[in-house]
């Protein structure tokens, strides 16, 4: 299987050159925007349960080149995909499987129109992504937010970064029919380099926390598994959490979301949920939310050992309580835990494939990757992908690049 995390990265300079070769015109008329991938340091599957999450942008980007047209036509092209699309800005867009990635873009345009924003012309787009699709570091949200930000800036729409995130989420809900949480879009829209972000998914209140890792860094580990279960299991887990919440509410517990419960409250009231599976799902939510708070304190105090232990606890809960890991992610995490210089590791994203992250001493990166790769290949039968990542900025415009 091709290792999408180790391929040569596509540069903004290449994108500008390709844009001009495809569409013609002068470079001064083109604007280029960057939209990052993200990791969630900790706080998994609780964004839709009223919990706090702790994501950070990383320095892997999707790039969007855009230019207004003189007519009402819209052109979408991507340098890595053969499909290209033509629409008209005055259309009433509808989801169609044949439209592939264009659905994400048309969903954004639909939400902007519903906000009363008026397009006076069409535009042309060329995109290139260095973010692995389906890898658990949020390629679809990078596409949504990058496109939304690019369009709003190009057309002079006064839309805040928080609204960009909400538009991305609403596009998923109403156009793509995916009931996602807000975390991915929010960190991609509002993130800052060298900071992680504590986000309260119930209130959208957030706090920047300096991401100072000293002689350590995060390594993203891609299972390279084609995920087939994640969407259906995501919806199943969400429904299970909603069932658990209703049981507690019916018993007189005055909460609006599972993550409003403290650990003490949970221990007092968990017996109200008789179903063992529902109880496990709810217990993960309560304690994962507490781990987020502890992780933020650990990072503020520079206690990376404590942070690493919390990552391990998170993975174990996602495996035994929430049951969304699978053999591939478990193999990566368990192999990582055994390596010298690894402070902690866990799955990130929806699960059942995708990615895991590990906090590793920089001087041990090469041996860590070699050893985990060997263990993974021996057990799974094919190789995983790895890259060490730094922090990145949220969606932003790049300075105009001189054509070479």
UniProtKB/TrEMBL annotation:
A GO CC annotation given for this chain: cytosol
Alphabetized UniProt keyword annotations: ATP-binding, Carbohydrate metabolism, Cytoplasm, Galactose metabolism, Kinase, Magnesium, Metal-binding, Nucleotide-binding, Transferase
Residues that bind Mg(2+): 140, 172
Family matches, as SUPFAM superfamilies: GHMP Kinase, C-terminal domain, Ribosomal protein S5 domain 2-like
InterPro entries listed in its UniProt record: Galactokinase (IPR000705), Galactokinase_bac (IPR022963), GalKase_N (IPR019539), GHMP_kinase_C_dom (IPR013750), GHMP_kinase_C_sf (IPR036554), GHMP_kinase_N_dom (IPR006204), Mevalonate/galactokinase (IPR006206), Ribosomal_Su5_D2-typ_SF (IPR020568)
Domain Galactokinase N-terminal: 18-68
Pathway(s) where this gene product acts: Carbohydrate metabolism; galactose metabolism
Ligand binding (substrate): 44-47, 234
EC nos: 2.7.1.6
Pfam hit, one: GHMP_kinases_N
Top EC class of this enzyme: transferase
Protein name per UniProt: Galactokinase
Organism for this UniProt entry: Treponema berlinense
Annotated gene: galK
């Amino acid at each position: 299987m091709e290792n999408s995390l180790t391929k040569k990265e596509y540069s903004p300079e290449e994108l500008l050159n390709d844009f001009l070769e495809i569409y013609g015109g002068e470079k001064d008329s083109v604007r280029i925007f960057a939209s990052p991938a993200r990791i969630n340091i900790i706080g998994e599957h609780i964004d839709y349960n009223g919990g706090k999450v702790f994501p950070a942008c990383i320095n892997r980007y999707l790039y969007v080149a855009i230019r207004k047209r003189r007519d009402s036509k819209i052109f979408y092209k991507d340098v890595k995909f053969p499909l290209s699309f033509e629409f008209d800005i005055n259309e009433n867009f509808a989801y169609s499987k044949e439209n592939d990635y264009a659905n994400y873009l048309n969903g954004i345009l639909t939400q902007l129109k519903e906000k009363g924003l008026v397009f006076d012309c069409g535009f042309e787009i060329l995109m290139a992504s260095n973010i692995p699709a389906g890898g658990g570091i949020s390629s679809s949200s990078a596409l949504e937010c990058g496109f939304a930000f690019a369009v709003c800036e190009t057309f002079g729409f006064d839309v805040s970064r928080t609204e960009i995130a909400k538009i991305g989420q609403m596009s998923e809900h109403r156009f793509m029919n995916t009931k996602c949480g807000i975390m991915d879009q929010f960190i991609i829209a509002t993130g800052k380099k060298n900071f992680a972000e504590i986000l309260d998914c119930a209130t959208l209140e957030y706090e920047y926390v300096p991401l100072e890792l000293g002689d350590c860094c995060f390594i993203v580990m891609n299972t390279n598994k084609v995920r087939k279960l994640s969407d259906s299991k995501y919806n199943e887990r969400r429904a299970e959490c909603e069932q658990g919440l209703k049981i507690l509410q019916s018993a007189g517990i005055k909460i609006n979301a599972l993550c409003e419960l403290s650990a003490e409250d949970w221990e007092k009231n968990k017996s109200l949920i008789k179903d063992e599976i529902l109880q496990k799902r709810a217990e993960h939510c309560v304690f994962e939310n507490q781990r987020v708070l502890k992780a933020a304190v650990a990072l503020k105090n520079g206690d990376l050992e404590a942070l690493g232990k919390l990552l391990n606890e998170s993975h174990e809960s996602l495996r035994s309580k929430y049951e969304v890991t699978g053999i591939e992610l478990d193999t990566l995490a368990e192999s990582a835990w055994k390596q010298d210089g690894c402070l902690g590791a866990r799955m990130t994203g929806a699960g059942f494939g995708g990615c895991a992250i590990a906090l590793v001493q920089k001087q041990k990166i090469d041996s860590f990757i070699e050893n985990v790769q060997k263990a993974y290949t021996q057990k799974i039968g094919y190789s995983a992908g790895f890259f060490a990542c730094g922090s990145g900025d949220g969606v932003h415009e790049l300075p105009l690049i001189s054509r070479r």
